[in-house]
Amino acid sequence: MQALKTTAELEYEYLKWHGYIHLLAGILILSVTSVNLLGLVNGGVLGLIIIIASGIMFAVIYLLASWKLQGNFSFSKQAWRGTFEDEFLNMVSLKAYKVGYFAVILAFIPGTLGAYNFVPLSRENLMTCFLGIIAVAYGITIAVGLRKGNE
């Protein structure tokens, strides 16, 4: 029989898998954008392989996370809004949101200076790239923050 987990342990697992899913989704989004940037989608097999491999990796990680956490969402519903009962998890989550926001601001600054005029990306692809940057920054910050441990 499996031992019951405390709220802090459930929130920790939720945040950990949430970070991994964001990291993988960001990598998938950035790989699709990079494929568009390199022009490999227009008949290129390599672009199709990159997109399919990224999609399969995302699906596997997402299914593993949902299977592992299935039925474990009995903790506070505040976690769905990014507020955790554990102060350490709260700090890691808030820091991850800040890093994701700051990363996009840094990526957006060259655009205000006109540097994106030389990049062959449409506005849609550029916004998709920003979304991928947010997801990767958020996921990496959570993975690194949770690895440091609750000291």
Fill in the keyword field for this structure.
single chain, mainly alpha, 0% strand, flat
Record the SSE blueprint.
Blueprint: H1 7-38, H2 45-68, H3 87-112, H4 123-148
Helix pairs in contact: 1-2, 1-4, 3-4
Structural class: mainly alpha
Binned, the helix content reads over 70%
Task: From the alpha carbons, calculate the radius of gyration and give it in angstroms.
Answer: 18 Å
Main sheet specs = none
Query: What coarse outline follows from CA principal-axis ratios?
Result: flat
Number of strands: 0
Number of helices: 4
Return the string of H and E elements: HHHH
The average pLDDT score comes to 76
Low-pLDDT ranges: none
Strand content: under 5%
The end-to-end distance, rounded to whole angstroms, is 30 Å
Give structural notes.
By secondary structure, the chain is mainly α. The protein is about 70% helix and about 0% strand. It is built from 4 helices and no strands. It has helices at about 5-40, 45-70, 85-110, 125-150. The model has no long low-confidence stretch (mean pLDDT about 75).
Concise account of the structure shown:
The protein is mainly α. It has helices at residues 7-38, 45-68, 87-112, 123-148. It is built from 4 helices and no strands.
